Fold:
Amino acid sequence: MSVTNSKQPSTYPNFLVVLELLKPITWFPPMWAFACGVISSGVSVMENLDLLILGIIVAGPVVCGMSQAANDWCDRHVDTINEPNRPIPSGRMPENWGLKIALGMTVLAIVLGWQLGVWGFIATIIAALAAWAYSIEPIRLKKSGIWGPGLVGLCYEGIPWFTGAAVMLQAFPDVKIILVAIAYAVGAHGIMTLNDFKALKGDKALGINSLPVQLGPEKAAKIACYVMAAPQIGVITLLYAWGLPIFSIFVLLLLIGQIVAMRRLLSDPEKFAPWYNSTGVLMFVSGMMVCALGLSQAFAQ
Structure:
């Protein structure tokens, strides 16, 4: 009598697979933007370190992680074309667990957001709703090459920046902070458009009308560059007008560096979009912190 191994695969995903679902590499933008908001408020960071740490956790691992889980569950069909090795299409995570994790983390986000005060709580709810609106049918704003990247840019840069300042101040932030947060959220629209290049094949097949799908890689890349650069020109102008010329010059130099990188990007957008995301985008986010430090100094005067 022969004995065979009849062990069945686990119905529970392991920790590493869950971590892969949550895409930790995507947590950085909202965490960074929240930190920029905290610093731009002019309030002492060391005296409010607990709020800073909690806010970074909510913005990154919790809300952004939740958005990635929701997006992967809603994208499980398109990912069989674009990224078949992702946890759900590869079968390493049971499909229903993607939804369970996304829903559970939505509740966790709201609970933790309450600890950030009224403005942090409101911002957390808005971000959670936006994450679901981006991915889930029938809303699925990611189908639009305009609204999809715009919503992601708002949630990655604008809302976290606003929230960081509002949590520190426990009040509605100064209009200077609002203007800068909006500017960088608009600029992030271009970054998200470049991010769509990696899903070009699957988006075409399933009718997701990203700008690269609608306009082609060359035109979409040009628009992305304009959208990234124009708000930064506005920030440079505002910093100078607010009596912060040194910070204005630093942001200008970082923008010039991005423009140099953009020239290479535009020579072959499909090839160099990932390269630009590790060079030009780094200069973009560095400019955010320069701007935050400038605002902090302005409020301290």
About this structure: The radius of gyration is 20 Å. The CA atoms of residues 133 and 139 lie 6 Å apart. The chain has a mean pLDDT of 90.
